[in-house]
């Protein structure tokens, strides 16, 4: 992570962009406080890519197997019926 002021970034934008393309995160500051981050387009696209979730997985499953209807309570019970972890406050 690199910190640079907005004023310095104006003077060295080309070099900062090259560093961002090489994988650096350039944090821009104003009055000592971070206000923006310069990152590569590749990193930006990766951050914006949709992420899989259990909810989306179940929705996709329901779309494929539409004849099977499960209630939200049934799906919620899957999580609740998992084996408990062993835990003790003692060593």
Describe this structure in words.
This protein is an alpha+beta fold and 91 residues long. It folds into 2 domains: 47 residues, YefM-like fold, CATH 3.40.1620.10; 33 residues, no CATH class. Helix content is 47%, strand content 16%. It contains 5 helices and 3 strands; from the N terminus they run E-H-H-E-E-H-H-H. A 3-stranded mixed sheet has the order 1-2-3. The protein is elongated and about 60 Å long. The protein starts with a strand and ends in an 11-residue tail after the last helix. 2% of the residues are buried. The model has no long low-confidence stretch (mean pLDDT 84).
Provide the descriptors you would attach to this structure in a database record.
Antitoxin, 5 helices, 91 residues, alpha+beta, Antitoxin_Phd/YefM, three-stranded mixed beta sheet, 2 domains
- The structural domain count equals 2
The termini sit apart by: 40 Å
The CATH topology of the largest domain comes to: YefM-like fold
The assigned structural class equals: alpha+beta
CATH-level-4 superfamily name of the largest domain: YefM-like domain
Overall geometric form: elongated
Integer-rounded radius of gyration? 24 Å
Number of strands: 3
Number of helices: 5
The average pLDDT is: 84
Biggest β-sheet strands, sense, barrel: 3 strands, mixed
Beta-strand percent range:
15-25%
Q: What would CATH call the class of the largest domain?
A: Alpha Beta
Helix share, percent = 40-55%
SSE topology string: EHHEEHHH
What strand line-up does the widest sheet have?
Answer: 1-2-3
Function: Antitoxin component of a type II toxin-antitoxin (TA) system.
Family: Belongs to the phD/YefM antitoxin family.
Protein name: Antitoxin
InterPro entries: Antitoxin_Phd/YefM, phD/YefM_antitoxin, YefM-like_sf
């Amino acid at each position: 992570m690199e910190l640079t002021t907005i004023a310095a970034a104006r003077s060295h934008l080309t070099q900062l962009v090259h560093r961002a393309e090489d994988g650096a995160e350039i944090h821009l500051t104003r009055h000592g406080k971070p206000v923006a981050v310069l990152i590569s387009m590749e990193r930006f696209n990766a951050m914006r890519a949709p992420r899989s979730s259990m909810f989306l997985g179940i929705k996709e499953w329901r779309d494929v197997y539409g004849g099977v209807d499960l209630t939200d309570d049934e799906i919620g019970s899957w999580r609740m019926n998992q084996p408990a972890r062993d835990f003790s406050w003692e060593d």
